[in-house]
Amino acid sequence: MIELARSSVQTWECDTMGHMNVQFYVERCSDALAAFGAKMGLGPKALARSKHCFEPVDQHMRFLKELRPGTPYYLRGGAVQADVMTLTTYCELVQTFDNEPAAAFRTVSRLVQLGDREPDGFEDGARAMAMHNKVEIPSYAAPRGLALDTPRKAPTLAETEKANMVATYQGVVHARECDAQGYLQPRSFMARLSDSIPNLLVLTSGRNRGEPGSTGGAALEYRFIYRKFPRAGDLLCIRSGLRSIAEKTYVWAHWIFDAETGECAGTAEAVAVAMDLTTRKAIAIPPELRERLEKLVVPGLTI
């Protein structure tokens, strides 16, 4: 793997759990993709001249370690596969002080035109340059609680009522969350899911994350399907549902929609765990909470 980015965790990047929020992992992965693009002859300046950009399609993430404020890290990675229409990359975020991976990302991207986001193919030369840095995905980065099956057909907002999903977010896309062309950045997709979780918890389990307590939660794994990139000014909403529950973990599904048109912008699923905030270790789901959550499981809910 080659080094693609280097930075450290800032206090303002951390959430109420005291660790770096998932949206900033996604942002660092986007930084790494830009750096890898430069190795292909498709760096930011080259893409600007040709009026193209990279756009993620399918992203799988494993969160292996907490990143607390001040932690230094770097990202390394390479290409897994380079086809005419898609590029599959792997990168991992590594703690500088012990060289231990803290997160891993498998991202399928495509090359799209800046104006209308129509996809274009990768030229042979760019694909060849990508495969100069071919890598294999390590076993610790492979799916564990999720599967990389073919995504379902894009759902509609009307389907969420039949699926007994709950409303967890609604808000406007702001220009500060968008790229130079006014399209929502990948980080901001994840930011909305993160913002929705406290509503999800109180609606499904009665827990108020705003109150002091000894327990919290953390995401262990995510898969995100980017279906349409909203623009500044669009009104978005999220519907969420519980897919399954185990001893310590549960799997949530989140569907993001244009609230005005009902069109799906993205679908995601996440493996989450309850956590003791003192020991920073996963704990079993309490029996009373388990009983309540089991009644909310939506059979067949998929990404």
Structure characterization notes:
The chain is of the alpha+beta class and 303 residues long. The protein has two domains: 1-142, Thiol Ester Dehydrase, Chain A; 144-303, Hotdog Thioesterase (Thiol Ester Dehydrase, Chain A), CATH 3.10.129. It is 22% helix and 36% strand. The protein is built from six helices and twelve strands. The chain has helices at residues 22-39, 44-50, 124-131, 157-162, 186-205, 287-294, and strands at 2-8, 52-63, 72-82, 87-95, 101-113, 119-120, 166-172, 215-226, 235-245, 249-258, 264-276, 281-282. Strands 1, 2, 3, 4, 5, 6, 7, 8, 9, 10, 11 and 12 form a twelve-stranded antiparallel sheet that branches. β10 and β11 form a beta hairpin. The longest helix is centred in the middle third of the chain and has 20 residues, at 186-205. The chain is globular, with a radius of gyration of 19 Å. The mean pLDDT is 93.
